[in-house]
Amino acid sequence: MMKNYILYFRPSWLLFLAVIFIGFSACEIDEIEDPNGPSLSGVINNASRSDLQLVVTGTESLLRKEINFYYFTSGIVGRDVYLFTSADPRYTGELLGRDQSVLDNAGFYGTRPYSGRYATVKNTNVLLEAVANNANRLSLTTAEVNGYNGFAHAIQAYEMLMALNLQFLNGIRVDVADPFNLGLFLTYEESLAALAGILATASNELANAGADFPFTLSSGFAGFDTPATFRQFVKGLEARIAIYQGNKTAAASFLGESFLDVAGDLYAGPFRPYSTASGELVNEVFRVPNQSEALVAHPSYTEDIEAGDDRISKVAPRDTLKLDDLTATYDCIVYPSLSAPIWLIRNEELILIRAEARIGSNNAGATEDLNVIRQAHGLGDYSGATDDASLIDEMLKQRRFSLYAEGHRWVDMRRYGRLSQLPIDRVDDDVWQEMPRPVTEDE
Amino acid sequence: MKKTRLWLLFVIITYGGWVNAQFMASGTITDIDGNPIVGATVIIKGTNIGTVSNLDGNYQLDIPTQSALLEFSYLGYSTTTFSVAPGEDIANVVLSEDVTRMEEVVISGLATSVKRSNLANSVESISASELTGITVPTNTQAALYGKFKGVNISANSGAPGGGMSFKLRGTTSISGSSQPLFIIDGIWLDNSSIPAGLNIVSKAQGGGGTSNQDNPSNRLADIDPYDIEKIEVLKGASAAAIYGSRAAGGVVIITTKKGKSGKTVVRLSQSIGFTNMLRPQGVRQWTEERVLGSNFASSIDLYRSAVANDQLHDYEDELFGNTGSMYNTRLSISGGSDRTQFFIGGTYKDEEGIVQNTGFSKQAARINLNHKLNDKIDLAVSTNYVHSSSDRGFFNNDNSGTTMGVSLTSTPSFAQISADENGNFPNNDFAASNFLETAAKITNNEDINRFIGGGSVSAKLFTAERQDLKVIINGGIDYYTLNTTAIFPNSLQFQSNGNGLNGVSIQAFTKNLNTNISAFLLYSLYGANGLSSRTQFGISQADFDRNTILGEASNLIGSQTNLDQSGTRDITQTRLIQHDKGFFVQEELNYQDKFIATIGLRGDKSSNNGDVNKLYYYPKASLAVNLHEIMNNAIDQFSLLKLRVAYGQSGNFANFGSKYTSFVSGIIDANPGIEVDDLLGNSNVAPERQTELEFGFDVGALQNRLLFDFTYYIKSVDDLLLEADIPWSSGFISVVTNAASLENKGFEIGVDYQVIQTKDLQWNTRLSWWTNTAKVTELLVPSFTTGGFADFLGQFRIKEGHSPTEIIGVGGTPDEDGLTVFGDAEPDFQMSWMNTLTWKRFDLSFLFHWKSGGEAINLSTLLFDLGGTTHDYDDIDLDPDKLMGNGPYRVSQIGVNSDVMIEDASYLRLREIGLYYTFPDKVLGDIGLKLGFSGTNLINVFSYNSYDPEVSNFGSDGLSSQVEVNPFPSSKRFDFHIMAEF
After folding, report:
1. How far from B450 is each of B141, B542, B575, CA to CA, in Å?
2. Which residue out of B199, B295, B583, B729 would a mutagenesis test of the A interface target, given it has the greatest number of A Cβ atoms within 10 Å?
3. How many other CB atoms are found less than 10 A from the CB of residue B938?
């Protein structure tokens, strides 16, 4: 006889087990904060003063994001440079319109410099929002609020102007604060006007921002790091936009309040700093001279430059390099090292804008300004005709060599309708008017 | 849950009765050769009354009834029944090996398994002999090729140490992982691929950060295939629903070897082999005319002097021509008493690659213990320590001309870049780097120390004649530290004289800890009417914690490699933390092996979801009908006729971090700033949900010597997570959203046939055929392209109504998106043919694997064309006008027509072949000795114009396989074996 069931454990054990089971599954999972970085909502809703400083510094840092592609694209399409690399065929293919190839609306050359600019714009909008939401709690003074906002508005207008330079007649969106409710695309002219409006706002805010910013800026803004001096930079940008708009009077007036100085250092102006120190960004436009992976000068640079022009030092002879039926004998050394700065805007451009603004109303003054540039580069005074058309030719020539590889020639030739005058290197090459609207922006 | 518990208690209390032992049955259980089988199970059919055979194969069993049908079973042997009655109480049985595997037990729940003949799913499994019996797999994943229907395994490159991606029944995710969950002895295994941070040198991903183009290995490579007893693959949600939120990619369940009671067996094996390049392409053959007509015209003097001095090089051979030697030593000791069994395994492996200074070495040890504490409690422990080290070279995409593969593309055969007599390398004037120097000087090593350990306790709480209740608790940890070291000394061409960063040392340390624990109650009831049931309820918890610290140092001081011996340092830390909890309940019903039904439900919550405490439910249900049992085996021709249908759901988590919108840091003048990241997070993110319906039938004829199985499945995935493009003017690049659905449909057909079964000659063959087609059924965002570099270079397109793996490009006849479909990464079908032939003492096994159709994006050839060095540069067969050489023609098509880059990736391979001879016992007394030869990938037929159509520049992420940019080429291998057993 045996019992047909055996209970191996006392009932109390079973109860214990049941409690474990129930307790185990009932307990909650705790929300995990992102372990890898601060969160966006935390900063917007609950910023400290040091958070605001971090956003300012981050914004400055973002001015450098993907910026190398801006200089490659504008430099290659504007026939300042070629980029020879075995790693990507598009630099010598699509960007030059080789054979039948066309630009790709997902190609990095158009999309990355574009998205990089709007990343900065996002950061500035975060700053504006964080300041607005936290001003009371942090007891920010009106002057301090104006300081933050003036900085944010100035930088976002600058960055959107860069995006507009790539997009030209496609226009851009300017109202982009809400990612789920973006503003419409404006035409090129509307875009310029909107950016001019933002800069005017910045200019006003900066005029009412007290003597000092409530934040510090990097060495890139040395000399432009108070509301008053930063505002001179903003005025320079306003002049640039006005001249793009063809509004010479406004340009001249903005220049009066800018940091223009005909006697001053042509390289005075705020810039993006680079460094090879730990954690810093390096200048990725830089390519080591005389290598097979090279940023080379377009052959026309050395062909067209006047004898004695010291701007020849922006290029350096190299071993002949051929790629895709293109030939280079000079490297572009505008950015001579990994820590070379890239300017946002500088005195030399302002002088040239004033020259341009004077053509038509004060040709003698324009000639004077052009001679400032010529003399600075070891050339004699301008001796050609001083009619408007001749001066425009001379002004564009000086802009070409003074602002070489700084992203201007393509824009300048375009606004004067002269893209067809840019040199074609291979029979079927094309000069593009603008980058295609990025694929993700399709409305 | 509470109801279940009460119901269990109710059953325990009410079930009872008294019976008498009527008589005792006894006998001996042996195999065909007369050897006793130790540990075979004897039960009275339809009850849980039973025992196991002892060390001599003997058993005794009290029978409570007047007569009984005894059922004898043992793993790997066919089950047999025998009637006993008083006076006829001696039952000696002979068990024959189960070649058909219908008796094999297959997992059916988290705490249960079921005989294959009663299974309602198509769950595939392979045993140790199929895994490692033919040849030496370089790692576990390489041993799985072509052995499972419906499973697409693809090597990402040929680099030593592996790097493979799996797709089980098609693509199951677009932005997330399609990789299956790996579970070894109940331990949730980490199978990450952690990049080494090479981007700072290769610039493969433009703006910095660690890119997945680093070609890392995946961590399954650590598992020693020789430790494995069995691998089961749950291919879709209908089988994998029991694993819930992590199972959408399928589940691969690995069971390691256990000791067996009886004599201690020592097995020692040694293999020695070599490896070389699978498919050399050759190099462009130069003539004076060709040099002058190329970008190398100015180097014509160099060409002339190279010809004059007989210095034309085959640089492909100089880079990839190393014949790598391979050693593999394996020792295992197993045995035990009837209470305690042990298995000890050790492996020492050292394999060289086909590129100088590359290779893979591994030392692994395993101890598995099983112990019966008493009649009620069983304990099992499995422990595994692995150290592996792989040197992977420097390959794949780059944007700096520095990887060896890219540098090779622009170096003509008349370049002189070999080292001089002092070992100094000249600069390669034709590329940014001298790949021979790079191969000689760089380090790119992954070094891992890993401990995987787990254990389980199974205790009977209650037992009765026809019922029992067990509790099973198991848990495991998977802990490793991975140290990746990439050193680019400042004497390299691309790190000296102002090039590069003047020497780079990149060192990453990853600590990964996975822990999981689960507990189950399992109640079995064997009804008197032939209806038996098993009820299980369980809870589980899994935690994941990974921390990677990546240090990048450049401007190295002299030849120093420590991170602090540098001018510039950068450090990045990446953490991944996840907590999951869930429960599982399942009911299995079996009516006389005629109808077998299962219904179950899993509920999961996770910190990775937007709502961390929301339970997501995954149901399953299945039914198998054994017609041959219903008809009492009335049809002689058919020994098996089974219809089956199964349904289930499972999930797939968003990539870690998808719920957050974060800032990243940016430094300027040593001051930190914060920058909004590219990805707009989604605080409502939910898992992807897969629903699978599978049905099929199994037919066995000729006493199961011929088995045929057919399965059709429909697998749909909803709430697919996309890192969908968002207008970039928002400041973000992409946004995480559950915004798409896709559907996979496919067939799987298998035939197993024991063609010849005579004393001297046995031939078993297995033919498998499978196909899958996929379609995006819903897409809430505009169609987009992904997974490549640019549309004109070939990309994948996600578009409603189209295959998610279709490859598009420009040119041809564009559709409404302005794009043309040039192919699809998905093969038309795959087929494998496995054979084992035994003739007297010789064993011959071989496995053919045919993948038909499917395209790949070949950008290697394009880069060779741009460099002007392609092997077929001057052949004229692509240009329709027959004017241009292939090289110039392909270049002329860049941006015009992507067709030339998108190539058929079909292949036929002899994956494995092995020939062995077993010595007769007498030769060496007690020592069994076996000698053999084996090979891997010895025959390869493909038209793809590069090293291997099986390739992935982007590793195993999402869709991105089948894109090639100058990878580490694949290799073939040959091994000689000697094995001893005593």
Report:
1. 18, 19, 19
2. B729
3. 17
d(CA B411, CA A288): 20
Residue corresponding to tokens 């325990």: B12
Residue of A62, A172, A292 lying closest to B675 (CB–CB): A62
Q: How many whole angstroms separate alpha carbon B859 and alpha carbon B966? A: 8
Distance in angstroms (rounded) separating the CA atoms of residues A27 and A440: 43
User: Which residue, among A113, A170, A125, has the nearest Cα to A442 in the 3D structure?
Assistant: A170
Phi/psi for A311 (5° steps) reads -70, -5
Per the confidence metrics, is the pTM higher than 0.90?
no
Residues of A in contact with B15 (CB under 8 A): 5
B2, B585 in Cβ contact below 8 A? no
User: Residue B282 has what DSSP assignment?
Assistant: -
Q: How far is CA B555 from the centre of its chain?
A: 40
How far apart are alpha carbons A209 and A226 in whole angstroms? 9
Question: Which of A355, A377, A342, A416 lies closest to A113, judged by CA?
Answer: A342
Query: What is the phi/psi pair of residue B612, to 5°?
Result: -65, -25
Looking at the predicted complex, does its ipTM rise above 0.95?
no
For B675, the closest of A61, A172, A324 (CB atoms) is: A61
pLDDT digits (tens, 9 = 90+) for B705-737: 899 999 999 999 999 988 878 899 999 998 888
Residue B265's SS3 state is: strand
Pairing of the two strands B93-94 and B23-30? parallel
Q: What is the 3-state secondary structure (H, E, C) of chain A?
A: CEECEEECCCHHHHHHHHHHHHHHHHCCCCCCCCCCCCEHHHHHHCCCHHHHHHHHHHHHHHCCCCHHHHHHHHHHHCCCEEEECCCCCCCCCHHHCCCCCCCCCCCHHHHHHHHHHHHHHHHHHHHHHHHHHHCCCCCCCHHHHHHHHHHHHHHHHHHHHHHHHHHHHHCCECCCCCCCCCCCECCHHHHHHHHHHHHHHHHHHHHCCCCCCCCCCCHHHCCCCCHHHHHHHHHHHHHHHHHHCCCHHHHHHHHHCCCCCCCCCCCCCCEECCCCCCCCCCCCCCCCCCCCCEEEECHHHHHHCCCCCHHHHHEEEEEEEEECCEEEEEEECCCCCCCCCEECCCHHHHHHHHHHHHCCCCHHHHHHHHHHHHHHCCCCCCCCCCCHHHHHHHHHHHHHHHCCCCCCHHHHHHHCCCHHHCCCCCCCCCCCCCCCCCHHHCC
Write the pLDDT tens digit of every residue in B963-972: 899 999 999 9
Say if residues B829 and B170 touch (Cβ distance below 8 Å): no
Q: Does B850 touch chain A (CB under 8 A)?
A: no
Q: Each residue's pLDDT tens digit in chain A (443 positions)?
A: 334 555 566 666 666 666 666 665 557 888 887 888 788 888 898 899 999 999 999 999 999 999 999 999 999 999 999 999 877 889 999 999 998 889 988 889 999 999 999 999 999 999 999 999 999 999 999 999 999 999 999 999 999 999 999 999 999 999 999 998 999 999 999 999 999 999 999 999 999 999 999 999 999 999 999 999 999 999 999 999 999 999 999 999 999 999 999 999 999 999 999 998 877 899 999 999 998 889 999 999 999 999 999 999 999 999 999 988 999 999 999 999 999 999 999 999 999 999 999 999 999 999 999 999 999 999 999 999 999 999 999 999 999 999 999 999 999 999 999 999 999 999 999 999 999 999 888 76
8 Å CB contact of A439 and B725: yes
CB B563 within 8 A of CB B584: no
Q: B661 vs A128, A232, A241, B503, B652, CA distance in Å?
A: 18, 35, 34, 35, 21
- With an 8 Å Cβ cutoff, are B555 and A126 in contact? no
DSSP-derived 3-state class of residue A32: coil
